[in-house]
Amino acid sequence: DYVLTEAGLELEPVLSKIGEWGQRWARDIQPEDLDPGWLVWNIHRRLDISAMPPGRTVIEIVFTGAPANHRNFWLVHEAGEVDVCLKFPGFDSDVTMHTTVRVLAEVWRGIRPIRQEITAKRIRIEGNATLCRALPSWLLLSVYAPIKRRRL
Question: How far apart are CA 134 and CA 70, in angstroms?
Fold first, then answer.
């Protein structure tokens, strides 16, 4: 296991403040910033697994309009662990989310509220009705999402 040294722990508040500053003052997301793999990797690290049902839960994310090799991702939660799969994991999806990379990236950053995007049908969630309703509560978003953005 990796554990921060005392020196690393001392940097934590400094890096946190830099992250807050970045969220507050970052430019709008540009097309070249949109990386579905990076986005899914970060999402998998911020799932509220305590709110997820016991057993295995498979979330499929389908990025509409993305190139075929960057369109489908699966998050497989089981026994407190979440894996990211770039290929079909061999389990049926319990919930499938259809959206664009931009919409999910902006939700992740706190720019767009997820419930609003679902209502507007820019995010479509299919599968077990109970799990579909619960999915937004599993996504904890970026730790910086609550920070209000400012413009120069």
Answer: 25
- Burial grade of 140 (CB within 10 A; 0-12, 13-18, 19 or more): middle
CA 40 to each of CA 6, 20, 46, 56, 63: distance values in angstroms, whole numbers, following the listed order: 31, 21, 10, 18, 11
pLDDT higher than 90, residue 81 = yes
CB 146 within 8 Å of CB 110: yes
Task: State if pTM tops 0.85.
Answer: yes
Q: pLDDT digits over 6-61, tens only?
A: 999 999 999 999 999 988 998 888 888 899 999 999 999 999 999 999 999 999 99
Q: Is 31 exposed, middle or buried (0-12, 13-18, 19+ CB in 10 A)?
A: exposed
Token pair listed for 35: 């990386």
